[in-house]
Records
---
Amino acid sequence: MIETSIHIVLLLVFPPLMLGVINKTKAFFAGRKGVPLLQAYYDIGKLLRKSLVISTTTTWIFWAGPIVSLASVLAAGLLLPLGPFNAPLSFVGDMILFAYLFGLSRFFTTAAALDTGSAFEGMGAAREVTFALLSEPALFFALLVLAKDSGSLSLNAMLHGPAAGISASLIAPFVLIAIGLFIIMLAEGCRIPVDDPNTHLELTMIHEVMVLDHSGPLLGLVLYGAAMKLFELGSMVLHLAVPFQTSMAWLNWILLLVELVGLSVAVGVIESIMARLRMRHVPSLLIGALLLCGSGFILLVR
Amino acid sequence: MTTLEFVVAAAVLLCVSGVPALMLPARSLLGQRTTTVLVLTGSIMGLLGSVPALVGASAAGGLRLPWFLPQGQGAIGIDALSAFFLVLIFVVPALGSIYGLEYWKQGEHSGNGRKLGLFYGILAGSMALVVVARNGFLFMIVWEVMAMAAFFAATAEDDNPEVRNAGWVYLIATHVGTLCLLAMFALWKSASGSFQFELAPAMPQAVAGIIFVLALVGFGFKAGIMPLHVWLPGAHANAPSHVSAVMSGVMLKMGVYGIIRMTALLPLPSTWWGSTTLIVGAVTGLAGIAFAISQNDIKRMLAYSSIENIGIIMMGIGLALLGRAMGRVDWMLLGMGGALLHVWNHGLFKSLLFLNAGAIIHAQGTREIDRMGGLARSLPLLAALFAVGAVAISALPPLNGFVSEWLIYLGLFGTLGLDGGPGFPVAATAAVFLAMIGSLAVATFVKLLGTVFLGSPRRSGPDAEHRGHALSVMMTGPMIALAITCLAIGLVPALFIPAVERAAYGWMPATASGQALLVLAPVRWLGLAGVGLVALIAMMVLVSRIMLRGKNVRRGPTWDCGYARPSARMQYTGSSLGQSIVGLFSVLLRPRTAPPLISGAMPTATAFESQVPDTVLDKAVVPVFSFLGLQLPRIRFMQQGKLNLYLLYIVVITALLFIFGSMGVRP
């Protein structure tokens, strides 16, 4: 019960902090002081209090975009185990529901973008669905590897690693899918080198450009949902990147927080030392992720 | 009456449903209503007969018919597998018939209304007979009746050359398929000793393999597996929408039924049957949906998406065949269960979408989606129904498409051999294909929903505006019913799984038992998660309403980065939305583009055009047929139109058969 409560609180509260850590890291690299660590919370809070402007071309789909998207990301968060703890909701086959909930989120986000009738938002929607076409199969290769090594079809057991510990033959596939999942996290979480959350040049963006017309509380929900998605995919990567745990529960929670902050720093470092890829090169990166995860699978079952 | 008699009576009633209208005037509303009432009566009778067989209330029945043909004995029968398909046959055409009362009014289509009514009924009735036939001879007769009825129903508007052309392609394709089926049944007769559909005695693996391949190809023409799908997009696009719904939602499934029935009768398969079917399914699914997103005609998009869904069903069947070959009951149950549930699901949401497409075409007067837009504001109910269909067909939770794909996924993950039993890990890569198909389906249906219903209308004019209001309950009612079934299967899947399980066990060898689908796949949890998701969304809608209370919600034009004069023509079109995906698949799709000609410092108005024709039809089928069309007239000298010559041919052939027979060559 306590675990479930901590899980839900962490899921609801922590995600915007990751954005803060990423921005602080970037500020550090640029030699700036940067915005406060908690800026994302302030932003979301401010947006939720504001009034909003809605385009006259839009319908209920425009509202469904942020709401359904956040609801499905939240539901996915309940299926995902954090650190060494079990997810609040777990059953055989939940990993497929987890992946498809992101699909549901994408469906309504892109439909809401098209609802505005703006060419920019259409562009964003087109990019989003195109890149998902490559990242989704990569995710499923990773899921196959995890299912095979754990002998289970539920995210809890799959992400907690094989009961017997990681043997030598598993190291290579694990490293490969960890890198692949990290790339997917960057792509789905709209981070550099795939997408730049800070730019205001609409022609070059993916996620930000889809939500150009969302304002006030709706934009707040969008930002919050995006942070939560980053948090979830990041936690998934951490299961593979740091497969250690201590015997004390409270220490494990603290360890998890440290890992998440560390992951955010890593994302910040990447954003600081890399430029965003040109849009037509993004598929190559994602195909790279697909090949990494696919090779991991082949190495495992050969 | 027994359940079987109910079903046969229903089929007969459906077949004659169009006859009374023939005796009434061509514009008679009474005639059309009579037809619909007969279709409805027949369908309800049929459901009364088939549902008990599905839930297990009555024992599987069989009936021998008085038979006048030389081969074997006419037999019909009903089991859970037949009943499963019968439910779809008695639901979709009935709803389509109600829809037709408004969509295809006889008063407005006096030239073809009665003909359409007649063949629509025959199509529905003959499909019911196809799934109860238990004799190869009888099966082929009703199969042909079905194929011809579909031809006449689909070419209702035969004054349009495009329709005639599509019908012609269909007619050739279906008969090439029939040819394979004739060969298959001939081989079946010689291997099993009769035309009856009874469990085959032991036969050489090679013979069984050839029968399987012939079944896959012959039935594959009807189901529309790639590359045998060439007839499908044209025929579906040009048929009246409720006929498209029946063809796509139900008739394609007759091909699936044939494959399922024959593989149930054949002896234990080798593993290559399963892996071949799995590969065929993955290729069909991926290529189907890739073609779907590249199209601009709403009905062609839906037709290609049917090909995709047939691919998914074939993946399930392939998995089940692998399980059969390797003795894994769980794979059989998950694969066949997923495939069968997807048969239902696709029948429901695809007919919902085709009926919806008909209403869209009525409102817009075109099938080209790039000329539509903004329909959601004039027809909000239609938009909501389309959104339900689109989410369901994209296999997204919490609707029904997800449940069936989830079963197939579980089975495919199971081929990794997780429980220590034998595995077939290569098959698990099919799960990755399924994931790719899923994300393409999301892209395709976002494109359709967005281009047709969202944004602002791309065409202006009074024409586009006022036609939108004529949506009667005759058209929306059937769609609402279909949408409710999609929701029901998605949210309470546990209610439907027992029927799926019975039908799946009907396919399995009698020795397979001991596993329950509800245990292998905890759909109760899935339903719970779906209900929870809906509750979560409802809660968030409520919270956002409360939060917005008293707040100033202003309406303004789309911001569009501050552009001062956005126009409807500047919107992203469906083609541009799909363009980068078409680019990724250009090897397969071979898009044809005519780039705009720009010359001089002050270029004048120019045009850009792009289209994606069907690669198989254009690059393979048409060249072969035009070559044959040039070469075959050379043997026309044999056709002299003289009776004595034809008698001579018969004598020569008979003599040759005697000679071969005496040499010991036996068929």
---
Amino acid sequence: MAYVQQVATIFAKDLRAELRTKEAINASLSFALVVLLLFSFAFDPTEETTREISGGLLWIVFAFAGTLLLNRSFARELGNDCLDALISAPIPGSALFLGKAFANFVLVMAVELIALPLFGIFYNVKWTSQFWELMLVVVLGTWAMTVTGTIFSALTVNIRLREVMLPILNFPILIPALLGAMQLTSALVAGKPITEDNSAWLKMLIGFDVMYTAVSVVLVETVLVG
Amino acid sequence: MRDKILFVIGVAAILLLARDINAIIDLPEERNQGIIFKIIFFHVPMAITALTCSLVAFIASIGFLITKNFKFDAVAVAVTEVGLAFLAGNLITGSIWGRVAWGIWWAWDARLTSALVCWLLYAGYLMLRRAIEEPTQRATFAAIFSIFAFIDVPIVIFSIKWWRTQHPAPVFWGGGSMPKDWYALWAWNVLAMMLVGFVFTAVRLRQEEFQREIDSLRREAHAI
């Protein structure tokens, strides 16, 4: 029980810190908007073409905007040596990691849930026909992104070129998850429910989430303490 | 002693390669593909060597995290660099083959795409190493990333296979097989590539050890 409480404390602390300044989430939101806008120049945004590539488009927006948030996750703790204080706090590294990962998850989800209707408005796409299945895919894909993003955020926090290194490390690792999420999202936005054909992607996405959560929880102590 | 063994293995690798190349030149042209098919004698062994390298890097990374012995870290970086070079060779030869056989330099075929993703993963590993100054931290973080990357390799390969089976893929080899003596020649070339990879790794490993020695001497000089 104490463990859950420790995770919750870190989670609440991170959310509070972010919501009081709102610096990362504002940057992330406006960046998502800019990328959504830029895509309208890249191709002719008729309803047909947009539906076809909606998965790729949305997940590229989510991944880029999410990276901005994830970068701040540990970098925020650098001032006043907060990171050292957190590491020396009497909680296991995995609790610190999970608390931060959940907080990042909520923040990234918030940006995505604002970007999604905006995408629908800008591109005249009715995306809600398979709403709950789409939400399931968004949740699974976002968790994949936040779990590897949080551990790499911890990995890159003290090194040179921090902002550049995170996407360079995170995106190639994420390719299977992003690929699965893109395939499913395109189908769901087009109004096709998840069938036997593409349920393999869903399984892969769940497998990716479970595996990387486990590996991260095991290795995070080494990342933080050395 | 170590140098002598390395030298002998290196010479053996060169002789074996020379013999194989000589034999490959003498092979007749394949009926459908013509002379370009001979690239397979280098293309596939390079892929096998690169995969072996990533496995060794994974084991060495775990070894480092458990023992904190820098020898494992040196093995991991040496073998990753060599594997990356072999994978690059594999991608380039594949691209040349594709240009002749398919008429295009690049197709988003399952194997090509997965090879490229793996290349990017391990290039990220080397970039991460460059960005960290402190040796212990560098070795630890690189080992962790190497483990993440190695776990990703099978998922990447399977997911991209699924992705591609939903689309029409370019015709690939048509499930043909090679005559037995060609196959033996091919297997010999796998061995040759492995030996080349081994020698490269050993040389790079020694360089890494010297680097560490220089660093520690420099620190000592600073301390005085």
---
Amino acid sequence: MTMEEKIRFKLNDKQTELVTDPTQTLIWVLRNHFGLTGTKYGCGTGFCGACTVLIDNEPVRSCQMAISDVAGKSVVTIEGLAKNGKLHPVQQAFVDHDALQCGYCTPGMILTAVALLRKNPKISRKQIIEGLEDNYCRCGAHVRIIDAVEDASKVMKGGK
Amino acid sequence: MKKEREIKNEAARDAESPGMKRRSFIKILGGGIIIFFQPWNSLDLLAIPAEQGRSLTKDYNAFLHIAEDGTISCYTGKIEMGQGIITSLAMEMADDLNVPFEKVKMVMGDTDLCPYDAGTWGSQSTQTFGPAMRAATAEAKGVLLDLASAQLGVPASQLEVKDGIVFDTKNQKSTVSYAQLAKGKKLEKYLDVKPAPEDYTKFTYVGKSFKRVDSVEKVTGKAKYTGDLKFPGMVFARILRPPSHGAKMTSVDVSGAEKIDGVKVVRDGDLIAVISENKDKADEAIVKIKAEYTFDEMKVNDKTVFEWMVKADSRSNVVRTGGDLAEGRKISVKVFENEYHDPYIAHAPIETHTALAQFEGDKLTVWASTQSPFGLQDNIVRDLGLTREKVRVITPYVGGGFGGKAAYQQGVEAARLAKATGKPVMLVWSRDEEFFYDTFHTANVIKVNSGVDKSGNITFWDYQVWFAGTRGAEIIYEVPHFKTTSYSENRNVFPVQPFSTGPWRAPNNNSNTFAREVQIDIMASAAGMDPLDFRLKNLKDEKMIACLKSVADKFGYVPGKTPTGRGIGIACGHDAGTWVAEIAEVKVDKITGKVQVVRVAATQDMGLCVNPEGALIQMEGCITMALGYTFSEEVHFEGGNILDRNFDTYQLPLFSWVPKIDCVILDRKDKPPRGGGEPAIIAVGAIVCNAIHDATGARLLRTPMTPERVLEALKKV
């Protein structure tokens, strides 16, 4: 019998708890238990970045993280990014630039970019490219993604 | 072969009518006006894979519905996988009905609701489906105007429509909306209309750029892909896989898996799977199954495959021949003989093949990431022994296809497991399974022998292609003595090959364009001519000439005899009815062998461009995706074992690789629309190869051009 544990953490700004096998991976708990399916399975090994979520503002590959490791932390998924029905500037920039095709890598791409811009509001194009380097997009939306993140950085300098 | 199938289909038609005409969609849709139409043409016919085993009927295979609340819906078996037809088809329909673009709803890839469609591939949606849809829509508008005429008591010729409101041009206060016309109606109309060229000056939406309609859903995580669905009692399945293609199981011990909490082992014939409500437990359990195998695999690997291919099969097909090759050789001052190699490459969509299967009573519904919902339906019908009426396939958003999801094994597997367990079964292939069962782009060999005379005219062209087939194998240049021979075309499945192969974005045109355009570049260089001048001198195709001139202009191309040291490469070709020319500028690090593409310019003649923004995205996507096959993508294998099983060794293009991209779409509003999802990918390998040569004098004759291979080529300079 697997021992279950009670795990408390903040999920998209709301305190939450669940009793579960602590070794479960964060991605499948988010998707299957919480129904937050914007977090995508892509490779299961942390290479592609489709499952990226923010944990205490850091981008983390949720397929590589056990649910027990988020205890006491704050997890933000793509569903938690828009506030009061208003898209986050990075989401809005992706829409404005058509910075996606199939859209499957998009949540991970956006959350990685959000973390980048939080750390470095005056980010350069080169730094954006370096920061997104480990996220894969198969459709080839790269140029537009870079443009979108660059645009969002300009909007966010306004204090958002 | 094809002939036979057509005749059989003809005979089978009446007997096997899927009954679109018999089946009243009004019942399902609850009233309004339905216009049925059929976009069949020869291209559709050719696109039906034999394995679907479905007769071609004269049935109507798409329709538009004007609901009683005025909602306009287009029902089509096409699917949306990122290519953007959910936006562009809606634009076309809105244009012809004079309704606001956002009022048009696309209902896609549902075998119960949508009429038959062979599959979404070959850049056919816009060039084949679109014009038929437009013609039908124009007819539909005529039907609506007739209804309005009766209602308003004025002749239809006196009526016009704006934003879904029909008004009397002589009394603009006299109006009736489409919604009012559809109210209380139960009307089905069947149209046999032939697409006719249209007056593009009357377009409201078509030809103007529109943003994707699916982006807000996709940036908020709300967009539903197959794996995002969930039903009560749903279990996740993992299937036991052989270690290599061709391996046969001799014994299996599932006790380790059975010991895991909440896990059940399921057997259905040759299928051994574990199921659990908990995905992690299923993942944990599947690796606990111990199985032994015997191996009877092909003794071929990624290094020996090219030699093997040339010897494998002698079936040949002379595609095109003219003049006399011997005579051509005689009049040549220089002769060039080269062999080009291209490896197996993976589709590697970020969404792996996924399916959810659920029985309700005896009716099975399968949600699947597939490019061919009807193909999957037919395979399920065949493999599970069900009737077509009892199998419904629904296609949510697809997370990338590129031809790889023209194969749909996962849908059949999920269906079998749902039957075996009586539960809704979610099957998400792991990345490992995705690589193992991918229907790779086939490796291939192309030999080109050619010559030039002292004035720089191409004298002869002897082109032999193994396994890559003929898409893009046209000569395109003016040559008096020529022959194109294709060996082992369509010999693409296991065990003829070490594993199954299939269409990969612009199937094999990448390989053929690479060989042709590199050979041309070699000839131009040896003839002491600028590669653009050499092409223009040997071309009569005006569309190609226009594309080359346009791209040269966009790039700011300055002629020079290669290698100039500048690192500029040019190439051209056509695919899916669209003509394309591209120029690249590269920087080569002669110490590491690493090549950086600095910029790419591309010009495309695609006829009428429905949504320029969408078409540009596709061009950029093609160019970016192509960097993979150009620099890194190659499936390594030994016998039937795939050695690359994830993104650690199989390298997709990275952000840092992406050049500045400048695209031009020529204004051809008066010409029919052509394909846009694939053409721009075909020339990228060649422009980079030619640019590497221009930069360094090093000549590579294969893809991918890895740093090691660049260094090797540099040694020979």
---
Amino acid sequence: MFTPHTKTEREEMLRAVGVKSMEDLFVAVPQKFRFPKLNLSPRKTELEITSEMSELAYANESTRDLLCFLGAGAYNHYIPSAVDALVHRGEFFTAYTPYQPEISQGTLQAIFEYQSLIANLTGMDVSNASHYDGATATAEAVILAYSNFRGKRTKMVVSPAVHPHYRATVRTYMQGYEEVTLIGDTPSDPLESPDSLISLIDDQTALVIVQYPDFFGRIYDYTKLSDTAHKNGALFAVAVNPTALGILKPPSEFGADIVVGEGQPLGIPLSLGGPYLGLFATKKEFIRKIAGRLVGETVDQDGKRGYVLTLTAREQHIRREKASSNICTNQGLMALSSAIYMSLLGKQGFRKVAELCYQKAHYAAKEIASIPGFSVCMDTPFFHEFMVCCPQPVEQINTHLLDHGILGGYDLGKDYPALKQNMLVAVTEMNTKEDIDIFVDVLREMSNG
Amino acid sequence: MAEKTIYELSSPGRQGVQFPEADVPASGMPKEFLRKDLPLPELAEIDVIRHYTHLSKLNYCIDEGFYPLGSCTMKYNPRVNEDMARLPGFAFCHPLQPDETIQGSLSLMYNLQEDLKEISGFDEVTLQPAAGAQGEFVGVMVIHAYHKAHGDGKRTKMLIPDSAHGTNPASSAMIGYDVVGVPTDARGNVDIAALKAVCDDTVAGIMLTNPNTLGLFDENILDVIEIVHKAGGLVYGDGANLNALLGIVRPGDLGIDVMHFNLHKTFSTPHGGGGPGSGPVGTNKKLAEFLPGPIISILEEGDDELPPLYGFKQPKHSIGRVKSFNGQFGMHVRAYTYIHMHGPDGLRQVSELAVLNANYLLSKLKGTYKLPYDRVCMHEFVLEGKFDDVPDVHALDIAKRLMDFGYHPPTNYFPLIVHEALMIEPTETESKQTIDDFADAMLKIAKEAHESPELLQTAPHNSPVRRLDEVKAAKDLVMCCWLPDKAE
């Protein structure tokens, strides 16, 4: 399968190598374990595998089959046809990491443009070429802060309203840093305002990290928190939803030093959770501390503009055990997808999508709030996701919604036991008024009234 | 002329994609939170299509030609994989959907876990890690968690042979281990005496790349594993070179405790110009409870009427999550497709032909280029890109000159234990004819190195750009293109 060798060629090649049979190439392998019989299903042809896979895919009910009001870190957005048409070009997806710049300018310039787009969207000075996803980008922000203070500051203040998967990932990544403490993320009331983190910040704090809009959908002005962090000499990091930045102030305006985020909303399919895109951007002063690849502009020997991977001396293959991260393969093709998406939508289209999300979410919130027993239980502005307090556990409501072909909002009780009647509802440009009205009607069937 | 950037192509007022007008009554927006300017470019759809099409043409890729990049396994990426990952039922499922709505995907992931276990000889597999490097990190964390669970706190050293992959030291350091190097012996194996000398009760484990980065299968592999195990350490296998071992030997059978897979190397998922990868991790029984989750399992067995019910489980003493959601699912679909199109015989054939191609190419080059370890190689081999009689021609020059012949260069300057290394991995998807042509080019370049070295030193001559000024890039640090009105 996918190997072009004829029997004659194989024999010629074995002769040229100087061995009698294929088996002779493997004499270094312990004989006892050589050539195990693998108990795998027999090979299928393309026709057969296509049919098997179609059946498996058909066994799912996707957001194409269900009305989707589920978000919680991954969002159902429209992806213009041109994105995949370009990403599907073999020149992009069958190329390796651009270590040979003379024959990789396509990838390099596209990453340079991606870095530019992300820097401009977040208001930061510089973006890297991507991390794996929002969670690992958040963990890398913590590592950056730790190494920024050379290990002298060991407190990381983490808002409980940062995505639970991001917080869990940070905890995993910190297992090797025994002196580091993560505080703030397990308060008695997970819904307390970010200002309650202020009292946790002191001269041992390396980093304060929040989400914007936060995991519950709330929008806060983080200026006071950021100022307190900076007064104490700490760094301030913000995990963003990039779509929201189509209308919302970039985090640079309240003093973010590091911006991370999940880039999936930027033209990347939901695909059950991956591959996604980890956004990572900082102020200029941290440029040498950023993990992962960076593309810089330069010229070739004829003076022609070109691009190369730069500051590679920071990376694992050069610094080896002194590198702060081991990332090498990143999410290159997803970064390309997002660059194409942002270019296609442009200034106007990107803002339009953000406005549509905002307007439809607010319409949905108003309608849901009018159902007896349901309320939109938040007192802050929100973007396209909001918390609904339900008369029954969310689990029961979602079962009922699914019976009606609706993918209900996220059950916050899964991560915050006290919030098992709180549903996190996401609305995007994909939801029509009619969808929203159906959703509201089915919810009404579950009302107390 | 250099291709303009998307910002340079921008023209105020243009828009590539239109969206419908809002069909709901307008709500007021929170003024204090609104941004003033959104500095994104403005282009028509055709501008975007042409721009990225132009950029694509500046890339070399597998679809265009031979890509013998050692350690990267640049095999053909089957088109059917791409179509399968784009099936709407796979591409458009939300990661947090109820289990009963995603049984197709969960069954695929479960069976991929099972397939990887069977191929590698491990007892448990997690699909969560995002890439090989993250898989390595997971492997090291699992080892760390195991020793911790056994109250064995004094194990602080991770042994790394000098023929191991470059990420290994960084992965070890991320968990706080002290890295201790182990040299290679004259046959390209781990130096047993040196290994014994550093093995004591402070050793957490060894990170073994086998076949190693010289492309050689360690002839003493069972001894190496036994020595480390006897010292109470665990053995991590770097699975980046698994393309040599499918149906040939199972790392789990050899006694390796934990290993990552690179779906984007061995199982044909595309490299994407730098990612995404996918780095599942397999372990034997004693480490399984520490793996990151969630792992897919059967919650209720099926019967004649009903298929099994699949769901998520978290290993008992899991090190925790290493990313959001469920791993790089799109890559799982591709790898599953690939494995099922091969079956057991097809997979063995993959490795046999990968090894045959490497040895055949080696047989053609070793009389001309110096071969530091002269043995039958596995899927790749390392030559010296240096001739004693032309000291001013370097491996880099040979690499760049290959571009003029229409090839992607091999990996160079790695592994570090070979002087001016050229690391060559042809993969099984290349024909004898392709390899013959490439060998001819390599031999011609060797001749040129002696007759007209400047041809190599000034190469490439036909690429979209010539050699680039990397010092300038690192000094100026221009990482962004700005809108005209933001230009300084």
